[in-house]
Write a structure and sequence with these properties.
331 residues, Cytidine Deaminase, domain 2, 2 domains, 5-stranded mixed β-sheet, 28% helix
Length: 331
């Protein structure tokens, strides 16, 4: 008997690597196995405008099965799609594809993934979350109409959790709190996270609309709060402070095309869709009413300093490693 949850969990883990980085699209993971249970490919949607998870995964599996490297460096989704339809030669007829989210059923930068899977002749599709977006839903029906066996609801709860930020920013807004700390819970010991963790945060800053920071942090650290590590954009900034006496020569005030608000109110947050709050315990507690998720980077160091304390219980949604750090998504 096939352990469907095992295969889908691998696709789920792959999708989590790109959590929030696919904004405004949802993170999606995919896996393809053959009839013997061998994994041919695991991939994910990585960025808006790039190939969907299913297409990335089929491309990877095609190269693995055929040893044909023509697609190796091709990133254009339309080109990949056309090439696969013209050259697949039925190699996927005994394969199963696992997808964390129901394959899309609309025409965007490429034809629907549901149509691609059908035309490639997959034997079965195993799906975690069903599509909630009216524009994209209908993939399951298309697959079934084309004779593809479909199984839904595998790891549905976990797959629904994966796309929770997407569902929130589509309807209203998604707000998360980011914090770095040492293994013993201290957080005021200078730079804590590894370069890779900081690079990941810069990738997120490149996507968010608004960054919220505490006034004391601005006065003490004189930050820029941009995404320079990846040459990305700088989000608007809300300095959450009761005092407005800031030195405007601080780098964050000098970034072009950026709005900087100074306020002791969080009302500005309501004007944005995707918001990150960066800070420590005091800011976290002050912003508690608007926070949906928490992102913690825990470095493998024990240092003397202030320890964070919680007045609420949090649930771990996902745990991963970035370089030497542990990354925890919680709510």
């Amino acid at each position: 008997m096939v352990n469907e949850e095992f295969y889908l969990s691998l696709a789920l883990n792959e999708a989590w690597k790109y959590q929030l980085l696919t904004y405004p699209n949802p993170p999606v993971g995919a896996l393809i196995r053959d009839k013997h249970g061998n994994i041919l490919a695991i991939n994910a949607h990585k960025k808006q405008g790039k190939a969907h998870a299913e297409l990335e995964c089929v491309k990877e599996a095609y190269i693995s099965l055929t040893d044909n490297k023509e697609l190796q460096d091709v990133e254009d989704a339309s080109k990949i799609h056309r090439y696969l339809l013209q050259n697949h030669n039925g190699i996927f007829k005994d394969c199963t594809i696992y997808v964390t989210l129901e394959p899309c059923n609309h025409y965007g930068s490429t034809p629907p993934c549901s149509l691609l899977i059908s035309q490639l002749g997959f034997k079965e599709v195993v799906i975690g979350s069903t599509e909630k977006n009216k524009k994209a839903k209908g993939g399951i029906e298309t697959l079934k109409q084309n004779g593809i066996k479909v199984k839904t609801g595998v790891l549905e709860k976990e797959c629904d959790e994966l796309i929770e930020p997407f569902l929130k920013w589509q309807k209203d807004r998604f707000v998360f709190f980011k914090m770095a700390q040492n293994l013993n819970g201290t957080y005021d010991t200078g730079i804590i996270s590894s370069d890779k963790s900081r690079e990941y945060v810069h990738k997120i800053r490149d996507k968010i609309d608004l960054l919220v920071i505490g006034g004391n942090t601005v006065r003490k650290d004189r930050p820029t709060l941009d995404s320079r590590m990846i040459n990305g954009k700088a989000p608007d900034v809300l300095i959450y402070s009761k005092r407005g006496d800031f030195d405007t020569s601080i780098p964050l005030f000098k970034v072009k095309n950026r709005k900087v608000y100074i306020s002791d109110s969080l009302d500005i947050v309501k004007k944005y869709n995707f918001i990150m709050i960066e800070g420590a315990e005091k800011l976290m507690k002050a912003c508690d009413s608007v926070i949906d998720w928490y992102l913690f980077f825990i470095a493998p160091n024990i240092k003397v300093g202030k320890n964070i304390s919680f007045e609420k219980e949090l649930q771990t949604l996902h745990q991963d490693k970035i370089s030497t750090d542990t990354m925890l998504w919680m709510r």
